[in-house]
Amino acid sequence: MTAVIRELREIRLPLVSPFQTSFGVQTSRRILLVRAEVDVDGVTTEGWGECVAGDEPTYSAEYVDGAALVMRTVLIPRLADVVDLTAADVATVLEPVRGHPMAKAALEMAVLDAELRSAGQSFAGLLGVTRDRIPSGVSVGIHESVAALERAVAGYLEDGYVRIKLKIEPGWDLEPVGAIRRLIGPGVPLQVDANTAYTRDDTEHLRRLDEFDLLLIEQPLPEDDLLGHAALARAATTPICLDESLVSLTSVSDAIEIGACEVANIKPGRVGGYLAAVAIHDLCRQRGVPVWCGGMLETGIGRAANAALAALDGFTMTGDISASRRFYARDIVTAPIDVVDGHVAVPVGPGFGFELDLAFLDEVTTARIEV
Ligand code: NPQ
Ligand code: MG
């Protein structure tokens, strides 16, 4: 068997409503897709991967144009040099290239999807998961007023989401979080995500979030401030969860060891791929650290893959895998991810279990490179 990368495609999808975080407002999303082919005994099967890099390098250093360039000029040529390339080889072959985990993850994902489809196996089957559905949480952006936020959260509860995550930043924290806790009552699981917007000097202020009975505070401090997170974890009763800081197995292991990571958000793109994400899940499980699956405004491709990953036993907390229509009026897959009774079904079809709506995919395509 051998795999090759055939195509890079950039699409643009409008968001159903603006999504504001501490690092900016998003009204549409550019997304880079990768198409791979595997050949087994003369039979060709294609697979797709989705790169979660944002339009701009604001969540992390990666962004769509940079990811496309490094794939085309550095990563794909290295993969093309390998005889009998398989998905299990991709991370090792690309290891000498520093950084670019989201670009690497998308390439591995496309190869893995093609490989699994060619074998008639699902990603959920490869992982050996037994759950057939996972609980669905929703990430709610910063709004222009507390009243507008309350309307948004009420709508998501009507949609069935079983856990609410509020984006916070200095000036948008205690008041909106308190208002939402009062609105939803003590029984609805609630957590917050600062996307690195605070500093160590905000410790006393962040401790005031303890009164709202939150599941966790996600990434309050800068990505490289592990000691600051450890100090905050000692000062606050609300568990500290890391997102941006967790970039590798080593960074996760060290963060846990020093007490900086009481809960882990796992995003395959941020750690270099689904296979690395599974290894990080295994480590967290060994160490007794609860994990949940993050979201990057994925299309149905990434959403399907995340739903299977999040069915692993160590994913004991509700993730940010919401319905496709939370972000997009129309998805590029034929069966958009849906939330039923607060849960998302684990895909059982071959590969990552999605089928592309090729006509719509062509409609939203803004650039295409054949490799
Ligand atoms: C988080 N996601 O957990 C991220 C942040 C995020 C669902 O809260 C374009 C690309 C826009 C990536 C906005 C959620 C994004 C993005 C937010 C990632 O921190
Ligand atoms: Mg986050």
What order do the helices and strands come in, and which of them pair?
Elements: E1 2-21, E2 24-40, E3 43-51, H1 64-80, H2 87-94, H3 101-119, H4 123-127, E4 133-135, E5 137-140, H5 146-159, E6 163-167, H6 174-184, E7 190-193, H7 203-207, E8 217-218, H8 226-235, E9 240-242, H9 249-257, E10 263-266, H10 274-287, E11 291-293, H11 300-309, E12 343-345, H12 358-364, E13 365-370
Parallel strand pairs: 5-6, 6-7, 7-8, 8-9, 9-10, 10-11
Antiparallel strand pairs: 1-2, 1-13, 2-3, 4-12
Helix pairs in contact: 1-3, 2-3, 5-6, 9-10
Bound molecules: N-acetyl naphthylalanine and magnesium ion.
Total number of strands: 13
Unreliable residue stretches:
none
- Principal-axes geometry comes out as globular
The arrangement of helices and strands along the chain is EEEHHHHEEHEHEHEHEHEHEHEHE
Distance between the ends: 19 Å
Beta content comes to 15-25%
Mean pLDDT: 98
Word description of this protein:
The protein is α/β, with parallel strands linked by helices and 371 residues long. The protein contains 12 helices and 13 strands. The chain has helices at residues 64-80, 87-94, 101-119, 123-127, 146-159, 174-184, 203-207, 226-235, 249-257, 274-287, 300-309, 358-364; strands at 2-21, 24-40, 43-51, 133-135, 137-140, 163-167, 190-193, 217-218, 240-242, 263-266, 291-293, 343-345, 365-370. The strands form 3 sheets. The protein has a 7-stranded parallel β-sheet. The protein has a 4-stranded antiparallel β-sheet with strand order 3-2-1-13. The chain has a two-stranded antiparallel ribbon with strand order 4-12. Helix 1 packs across helix 3. The protein is globular, with a radius of gyration of 20 Å. The chain binds N-acetyl naphthylalanine and magnesium ion.
